[in-house]
Amino acid sequence: MSLTLTDIIAxxxxxxxxxxxxxxxxxxAVTTWLxxxxxxxxxxxxxxxxxxxxxMWTVIIPTLGLYMGGFFIAAGKPVPYNxxxxxxxxxxRPLQRKxxxxxxxxxxxxxxxxxxxxxxxxxxxxxxxSGVGVEQAWEASHSVVREGxxxxxxxxxxxxxxxxxxxxxFNLIPVPPLDGAKVIGAxxxxxxxxxxxxxxxxxxxxxxxxxxxxxxxxSLPIHGLTDGMIALALGL
Length: 236
Prior knowledge:
single chain; mainly alpha; two-stranded antiparallel sheet
């Protein structure tokens, strides 16, 4: 089934904007919790999609990718933060910068996993309440369904779970500027983590090469996580 513009907006773009908004809010909320008010001053500690959406990376590029029927990537506006503002202690000790980076960066993908789990719970409620069969619900959750009330809701929730799985897996790739580089950087010895995250444009170019040449390998964990969440919701 080819996707219409309405399909892309209803089943992908709106869920994507919601998922990205929560992802970026999580970054902002954690750095604020650590004592840095940069994100707060910039108006990023909010769930308002306008504050987090980037016209190119949140809307145009994902839409083009979906129109072409292939793998798509998406991102929101990066959340600004200043590690010098972190004042919180952990277990009575000053917070090391690398662990602050770990917490702030990891909050984004973690929020996507939480969103996927909540959507799976709601999916289970919809299926139980509507009387839709498990096999029919499975098919609807993996496709775009335009008619049928409960089936449409199941389809939207399935796409929302998929989008959050994609964002969680993609952002955990340990290549800057993705969150995974800062997450893994906390566990690297010496200043190797700083060097990794200081790659700048080289990191971005490496990411582009990885996506275009090895992007199909990302589908394995993305679809595995999606299927696992939906199977959990359906009691499979």
